[in-house]
Amino acid sequence: MFANANEIDAELDIAESFMHTDTQSAIDKLNSVLSHEAELSSSQKSRLYMLISLKHLYVAEYKEADIALERALSFNPPDDILTRIYLYKVTVNIGLKDYKQAFTQLEINLARIHNYQDNSIKIATYNRLLNVYLELEAYDEMLRISRLALDLNQGKNPKNQCYSMLYYSVAHLRLKKLQQASSLFSDTEEYCAEQGFPLIAVMSVKGRAIVAYENEDYQQAETLLLTSLDGYQKFKFEVEINEIHSYLGMTYFYLGRFQQAKLFADKVNQLPIAPNNLLVKKRVNEALSLVAGKQGQFDKAYQYQVVANALSLQILNEQKVKENAYQMARFDSVEKNRETNSLMQDHELLVQQKDLFMKDKSSSIMFSTLLVGVSVGLLLLLISAWLQRNQFMKQAQRDGLTGIYNRRTGQELAENEFIEAQTINEPFSVLLMDLDLFKNINDQFGHATGDWTLKKVTSVIETIIRPNDIFTRMGGEEFAIFMPKLEQPAAEEFAERIRIELMGINTRYSGHEFTITVSCGVSTANKDDLSLDPLIQRADLALYSAKNNGRNCVVCYNELMSQPTRSFSN
């Protein structure tokens, strides 16, 4: 039994403090306070259930977290607690993949705090917005908003500073600004550890680990991954633990320690197929496929790769939902601004009309002119909104760097062409290409040269593909060409032509001299194929073989053989 309200507040303060350092102790404190719920004020009950929701968020129990937050709202919390509850509801909606609702909650909260004098509440809301942008992979927006939050905070609130620093670092990582990201993560780790936010410090260690992994410094990646794993285990942060396990699976493969790679990959592979697990399960199935391939177990390698490809399709579908939610939110914002401007102009028009009515008839010309001007203004606003909507739709279909179809759109178009080809018994071939040692170009000459290479390769291929071919950037340095009405021999010859054309690119115009080579995998449909997926999987296995055979070659998957056969080797 608590002596007074201050003692209850003190217990909640301790529980909240433990939530960032010792999760189990925080849970024990919360359970202790919960057993005396009848003694709590409404404000204290709101805070208690808000902290209970945070406990559920740490272990990805989003529905339970949402129930606790609804319970917290039922006690009419004060403004500061209410704001935090709405922020956590945004996190819940992100976890539940309800991005439209996440944007709605953010909009409600941003409207509520517009007139607040306390910048810390505004900054906390910006940080929650950053989480949405991270989920939507809108990394340029992340960079802009995190910089805004840092400038607004200026170190006054350590907790907000830590979160803003972390998101600023992550934005650099996702934008492949690896050197800057590594330095920023180190600064964040040091600052947040000193300020008593060890969980954010652990997240920063993980960020440094991913930078090391991307830089192919696998020894350093292993050390940092194990350090962050130890930190996450203290918090029982299952979502992050699973991601660390998936990275360790890949890292140990590249270190040649296949048994350990399989050990960590199997941990993740035992997880259920759920939205939060798709990416990590895809990563470990790729690791298991690579391990099996190295050990000569090609049947297993194929099976793991099939699972990885299936998970990739699910991830693409999730990305489609994200893109649509993001575009609709942006478009809704444009529409609301247009409607507001229209109402304001209509109001001004009525005022002016009343004034003009009271004046001489000679002023009717002025009124007519004004009316025409307002009508033109409204028309321009409508045209602007329409153009912006079309722009969003185009951006959703095209790769931002090269201008060709992105993976989702390319595969959707190709699937339609494939179904039509199978219906009328016409051939259909798939070519997967991967630029050889592309990372070396980025590392030696910089990312600007890497971007030049991707755009140059794209422009060369666009000059030689047929009008009905579907040219797609699958991600990174990997491309695909879906080729209706093309038999296997012709597809192989076309792939070889591309290989030769790319080798002949004059790279001096990039400011550096180097040779561009590409590995290619080709597959052709057979009568048993019911969708595009088997073709992509077979082409991917052929590409895998091309890489293993020394790169800079074309390999065609031959259904009559037990494994892909090499052709057009260089």
TrEMBL record:
<dbReference type="InterPro" id="IPR011990">
    <property type="entry name" value="TPR-like_helical_dom_sf"/>
</dbReference>
<feature type="transmembrane region" description="Helical">
    <location>
        <begin position="365"/>
        <end position="387"/>
    </location>
</feature>
<protein>
    <recommendedName>
        <fullName>diguanylate cyclase</fullName>
        <ecNumber>2.7.7.65</ecNumber>
    </recommendedName>
</protein>
<dbReference type="InterPro" id="IPR029787">
    <property type="entry name" value="Nucleotide_cyclase"/>
</dbReference>
<feature type="repeat" description="TPR">
    <location>
        <begin position="46"/>
        <end position="79"/>
    </location>
</feature>
<keyword id="KW-1133">Transmembrane helix</keyword>
<feature type="domain" description="GGDEF">
    <location>
        <begin position="426"/>
        <end position="559"/>
    </location>
</feature>
<keyword id="KW-0812">Transmembrane</keyword>
<keyword id="KW-0802">TPR repeat</keyword>
<dbReference type="Pfam" id="PF00990">
    <property type="entry name" value="GGDEF"/>
</dbReference>
<dbReference type="InterPro" id="IPR019734">
    <property type="entry name" value="TPR_rpt"/>
</dbReference>
<dbReference type="InterPro" id="IPR000160">
    <property type="entry name" value="GGDEF_dom"/>
</dbReference>
<dbReference type="InterPro" id="IPR050469">
    <property type="entry name" value="Diguanylate_Cyclase"/>
</dbReference>
<keyword id="KW-0472">Membrane</keyword>
<dbReference type="InterPro" id="IPR043128">
    <property type="entry name" value="Rev_trsase/Diguanyl_cyclase"/>
</dbReference>
